[in-house]
Specification:
There is one protein chain. This protein has 3 domains: about 1-165, Methane Monooxygenase Hydroxylase, Chain G, domain 1; about 165-260; about 350-465. Helix content is about 75%, strand content about 0%. It contains 12 helices and no strands. It has helices at about 1-15, 25-40, 55-65, 70-75, 85-100, 100-110, 115-120, 130-140, 165-205, 210-250, 270-405, 410-465. The two termini are about 70 Å apart. It holds the Pfam family RUN. One of its GO terms (biological process) is plus-end-directed vesicle transport along microtubule. One of its GO terms (cellular component) is late endosome.
């Protein structure tokens, strides 16, 4: 039932793109169905004067002391034109729709199981978890819908509004009425304080001090006169507001109901108590109006904070733009560095090719030197073989010298020749070895230089890459 009404409201909002007003028939259906749901299996309770309580008192019991969730309660209590619990409950529902808090509010109430069980019988869907969860989930869909419905300016005590009222005229009239009520606040507070003092004195001293009782009665008569004047002013203001409501709604009848009746036959103490209760109610309503003003001040402060936050966001945006420009400049520099690195890499590749060619030349030169060394080694071997032959020949000559002592001069000559041959062979051997060592040293130095160049060539690309 309620689920279909929510779906129809969502569809209307999507198709029109405009906030839902009291002209919407879908809003009428939803309001009646939601109220039926809230009143279904609701326990009957009465107030002090015998008037029937409604779901407004259920919301009040659940939310009055919950911080952050009682703004709507305090707002509705400030609406002095609402006289019945039913009208206040309807105003609270409309306030919750406008502020997109209906689902949160009902969920907060249902979480309080003790209060909910105290207000509803077992057949209520609110006491059945599977049904209550489904209802809350669908009511959360209303948070996506904008509502333009006022909690003031309609006779919510009588019925739900059937068309949108002219909010501007009513607000002007309401502002004037509230100003007039504000002027009466001081006087009512003084009257209330004086009445409390009189009542306290009467209760404490009425049995023992007859003179003070007569003074209290006199003051009470004066207070009642002042109260009667104040009540006449309030009645006049209410009559003016009812006239405005009749002009705005055109077809609605005046259904203002008076709930308080004064029993003229009661004792003076009972009359005093009744008047005190009425003054307390009016004082509470005025205090609630002050709370509404404080709420508006908080909203203004919140708007100021939002403006400050917007300025901070703009500054942060400017900072981000500057950072973006700096990053773009750094990106250009990085691209230029990358281009230079690529150029140097190309030059390095050319250098590596040159070094490779030089390496080939060194290798070929080394191979030529190796051939020379091999030839010198063969020469050394030949000389060594010659030395061996000379040594053999020397041995033979020595034998001949041993056999032929007479050939001393020949032997001396042969020895000289032998010594010369040895010196020549030693000189040739030393020269060959020195030349071989020089060639090896040269080749070793060239090889080391080549290795160093290759290491440098390999390390430079790594540095560029880093």
């Amino acid at each position: 039932m309620i689920l279909e009404a929510v779906a129809e409201l969502a569809k209307e909002y999507r198709e029109s793109g405009e906030p839902i007003t009291d002209d919407s028939t879908n809003l009428h259906k939803f309001s009646y169905k939601l109220e039926y749901l809230l009143q279904f299996d609701l326990k009957e309770k009465t107030k002090f004067l015998g008037t029937k309580k409604d779901y407004w008192e259920y919301f009040n019991d659940c939310l009055a002391k919950v911080k952050g969730a009682n703004d709507g309660i305090r707002f509705v209590k400030c609406i002095t034109e609402l006289k019945t619990s039913l009208g206040k409950g309807r105003a609270f529902i409309r306030y919750s729709l406008v502020h997109q808090r209906l689902a949160d509010t009902l969920q907060q109430c249902l979480m309080n199981q003790s209060v909910t069980s105290d207000w509803y019988y077992s057949r209520s869907p609110f006491l059945k978890p599977h049904l209550s969860v489904d209802i809350i989930n669908h009511l959360y869909e209303l948070n996506e819908i904008q509502f333009d419905v006022a909690s003031r300016g309609h006779d919510l005590d009588a019925s739900w509004p059937t068309f949108a009222s002219r909010e501007k005229e009513l607000e002007i009239a309401k502002a004037g009425a509230e100003d007039t009520c504000a002027k009466q606040t001081g006087m009512l507070e003084r009257i209330t304080a004086e009445k409390k003092s009189i009542e306290k004195s009467q209760l404490e001293k009425s049995a023992i001090q007859e003179k003070e009782s007569q003074e209290v009665k006199g003051k009470l008569t004066m207070v009642e006169g002042q109260l009667e004047v104040s009540l006449k002013d309030v009645s006049r203001l209410q009559a003016e507001m009812l006239d405005l409501r009749v002009k705005v709604k055109r077809s609605e009848e005046e259904k203002l109901k008076s709930q308080a009746q004064v029993d003229v036959t009661e004792a003076q103490r009972d009359e005093l108590r009744t008047l005190t209760e009425q003054l307390k109610a009016q004082t509470e309503a005025l205090n609630q109006s002050h709370a509404l003003i404080e709420q508006r001040d908080r909203e203004v402060a919140a708007h100021a904070e939002m403006a400050i936050s917007a300025a901070a966001i703009r500054e942060e945006l400017s900072t981000l733009k500057a950072q973006n420009a700096r990053l773009a400049s750094e990106n250009v520099e990085i691209r230029e560095s990358l281009h230079r690195a690529n150029t140097e890499m190309a030059e390095l590749g050319i250098t590596i090719c040159k070094l490779s060619a030089e390496k080939e030349e060194v290798r070929e030169h080394w191979e030529g030197d190796a051939a020379k060394i091999e030839e010198l080694e063969r020469e050394v071997d030949r000389i060594e073989n010659s030395m061996e032959e000379l040594q053999l020949e020397n041995t033979k000559l020595r034998e001949e010298l041993t056999d032929e002592e007479k050939l001393l001069e020949t032997i001396a000559e042969l020895r000289e020749k032998l010594e010369k041959a040895k010196n020549q062979m030693q000189t040739a051997t030393d020269f060959s070895r020195e030349e071989a060592e020089a060639i090896k040293f040269q080749m070793s130095s060239e090889s080391m230089n080549h290795q160093v160049q290759m290491k440098v060539s390999c390390s430079e690309p790594a540095i560029m890459c880093v």
